[in-house]
Design brief:
26 helices, single chain, 508 residues, 2 domains, four-stranded mixed sheet, mainly alpha, 4 strands
Length: 508
C-alpha cells in the first residue's frame, strides 16, 4: 500500500475527531473508494489484459483482504460519519427499538448488529461493513406486512453474515485501480442516488465492472437463499420475499426513470430471481404471521412526523372516518402524534383515551402518554408513566432514555444514575446511555466518572483517540478513589493496546 493510501486508511479507521455536523457525502464516498483501493495493493500494477475474460473467483471468506475486526472498525467509523454528519440519519429511539427487535429475530448469530433508520422516502435498505444495516423510512411505510419488511432485512443481514463486502474486495484484487474507484463509488452512491450509481458503474471499464456485477449477482442470490432460511426460522412468512419483490417490480414497469424504487436499482430484481425465490419458498411451510402492533405504530409514526402536521391530521382523520386502515390503534396513535405536533394536546389526550379503550398495549403507547402529559406541563405525571412503563417493558430503551431525561430535568440525578446503571447491565454497548451518564456525572461535579463515561461513549463509537483522551482526563481529575483509578488505568491500557494494534493493521 502506498503512503497516501495508508494515510487515508488511517483516517477511515480512526477519523479526524468527533465534533461538527456538516455535509460530507463526497468525503464519505472517497473513503469507501480508498478502502477498495488500499486493500488490494496487487491490482495497481496489472494491465487491462489481465482482467479481460477472467473467471469468477471462489466465493471464499475474504479474510485475507479485510479481517472481521477491521471490517467492524470500518463500519463503526462510517456510522460515526452518518450519525454526526448525515442529516437524513433518523435518531428515533422508538423506531430503533423496533428495528433492533426485528433484526435480532432475523440475525440469529452472536455477531453484533445495529439497525438504524434513514429519513428517505425511497424503498431501500443497505448493509455496511461490520454489521450495520440502514433502513429507509420509505421501505418501512411501503411494506404492507411485517413479513415483507423482514424479508428485506433478512436479505441485508445475510449480506453481512456472508461477508459480501470483504469478498467483493477480494474479487476486486483482480481489477485495475480506475475500475475499483468507479465500482466503489457506484456502491456508495446507490445509498442515496441510484441514478448516479448507475452512471458511475457505466463509466468504469466494461470488462472489470461486468465481472464485478456478475459476482454481485451471485451475492444477491446467496443473500436471497439465506434470507429465506432466516425468515422461516424466525417464524415469518417466507413467501413474503417473492411477493414483495413482485410488488416492487410492478411499480418499476410504470416508469423507467428516477421513480424506480432505490432498492431495486441497487438490488436488481429480475423475473428469474423472483422465480428462484418462489421455488425455494415453495418447499417451506406457509405461515400466516400476525404483525406485532409496533410494526403498524412505527409506520404511523413515520407518517405522523413527515410534512405539515395539519395535512397529516387531515389524512389520519380521513382514514379513521372512512375505516381505511390496517390497524385502528395505529391510526389513532398517528393522529395523536400529529395533534401534538400541531400544538393540540387536549385532542391528543382524547385519542390516547380511545387507544386505552381499544386495549392497545405497547411501550410506544406509554411514550405517547408521557408526551401528552409533558405537553400539558404535567412533568410529574409523565415521570410516573415512564417509571411504570419501564416496569412493564424493562427492555425498552426508548422508555429508559425518556425516564432518565425526565429525572435529569427535575434534578433527580441520583435516581437517574440508578436507572442508567440498570440499563447498562442490559445494554452494556449502548453509547447513548454512556452519554447520559456522563452528563449526569458532570451535573454532580464528579469529573473522573464523567470523563470515564464519555470515554466509553467514544470507544463504542469507534473513536479510540477521543476515548483515550477522555480516560487520560479521568486519571488527572483528582476526585477519584484508589479503586476508581485502578479501573480507569486498566481500561486505558486496554484501549491503547487496541489502538496500537489497529494502527499496525492499517500499515500492512
Amino acid at each position: 500500500m502506498d503512503c497516501a493510501a495508508r494515510i487515508e486508511v488511517r483516517q477511515l479507521l480512526h477519523g479526524s475527531g468527533h465534533g461538527g455536523r456538516y455535509h460530507s457525502r463526497m468525503r464519505f464516498a472517497a473513503w469507501i473508494a480508498v478502502l477498495a483501493i488500499a486493500t488490494a495493493p496487487r491490482a495497481f500494477g496489472q494491465t487491462s489484459g489481465q482482467t479481460s475474460g477472467q473467471t469468477l473467483p471462489d466465493l471464499g471468506g475474504g479474510e485475507t483482504v479485510l479481517s472481521p475486526q477491521l471490517e467492524r472498525k470500518v463500519g463503526e467509523n462510517i456510522m460515526r460519519e452518518i450519525r454526526f454528519r448525515d442529516p437524513s440519519y433518523l435518531d428515533d429511539p422508538e423506531i430503533a427499538d423496533y428495528l433492533a427487535t426485528l433484526g435480532s429475530r432475523l440475525s440469529g448469530s452472536r455477531q453484533d448488529f445495529e439497525f438504524f433508520a434513514i429519513r428517505d422516502t425511497t424503498v431501500n435498505a443497505f448493509a455496511l461493513p461490520g454489521g450495520f444495516v440502514g433502513v429507509h423510512t420509505g421501505l418501512i411505510t411501503t411494506a404492507e406486512t411485517e413479513s415483507e419488511l423482514a424479508s428485506v432485512l433478512a436479505h441485508e443481514v445475510s449480506h453481512v453474515t456472508q461477508r459480501h463486502i470483504a469478498r467483493m474486495l477480494s474479487q476486486q484484487q483482480q481489477m485495475q485501480r480506475p475500475m475499483m474507484v468507479a465500482l466503489a463509488a457506484a456502491i456508495l452512491l446507490g445509498r442515496s442516488r441510484p441514478d448516479l450509481a448507475i452512471g458511475a458503474a457505466a463509466g468504469a471499464q466494461a470488462a472489470g465492472v461486468q465481472a464485478s456485477l456478475s459476482y454481485s449477482r451471485d451475492f444477491e442470490r446467496e443473500a436471497d437463499r439465506i434470507g429465506l432460511q432466516r425468515l422461516d426460522e424466525a417464524g415469518f412468512d417466507p413467501h413474503a420475499m417473492a411477493s414483495f419483490f413482485e410488488k416492487m417490480q410492478r411499480s418499476t414497469r410504470v416508469s423507467e426513470d428516477s421513480t424506480i424504487p432505490g432498492y431495486f436499482r441497487t438490488h436488481p430484481v429480475t423475473s428469474e430471481r423472483i422465480a428462484d425465490v418462489q421455488n425455494k419458498a415453495a418447499s417451506m411451510p406457509y405461515r400466516q404471521h400476525a404483525d406485532v402492533l409496533e410494526f403498524q405504530l412505527v409506520r404511523a409514526k413515520i407518517r405522523a412526523d413527515a410534512g405539515d402536521p395539519r395535512d397529516a391530521v387531515a389524512s389520519f382523520e380521513s382514514a379513521l372516518r372512512e375505516h381505511r386502515y390496517a390497524s385502528e390503534a395505529a391510526a389513532r396513535y398517528g393522529l395523536a402524534l400529529t395533534l401534538l405536533r400541531a400544538g393540540k394536546a387536549p385532542q391528543a389526550q382524547a385519542q390516547l383515551e380511545r387507544l386505552r379503550v381499544l386495549g392497545a398495549a405497547s411501550p410506544m403507547i406509554e411514550m405517547l402518554d408521557a408526551r401528552v402529559k409533558s405537553a400539558a406541563r404535567d412533568n410529574a405525571g409523565a415521570a410516573e408513566v415512564l417509571a411504570k412503563g419501564r416496569e412493564r417493558y424493562p427492555y425498552s430503551r426508548a422508555l429508559s432514555y425518556a425516564y432518565v431525561a425526565t429525572l435529569q430535568e427535575s434534578g433527580q440525578n441520583d435516581a437517574a444514575l440508578a436507572v442508567l446503571r440498570d440499563s447498562l447491565v442490559k445494554y452494556p454497548r449502548d453509547a447513548r446511555l454512556y452519554g447520559m451518564q456522563a452528563k449526569t456525572y458532570a451535573t454532580l461535579g464528579k469529573r473522573l466518572l464523567q470523563h470515564q463515561a464519555q470515554g466509553e461513549l467514544y470507544a463504542l463509537q469507534g473513536s479510540l483517540p477521543a476515548a483515550i483522551e477522555q480516560l487520560t482526563l479521568a486519571r488527572s481529575a483528582g476526585d477519584g478513589d484508589f479503586y476508581q483509578l485502578s479501573v480507569v488505568d486498566a481500561r486505558l491500557k486496554e484501549l491503547r493496546a487496541q489502538y496500537t494494534a489497529e494502527l499496525k493493521e492499517a500499515k500492512r
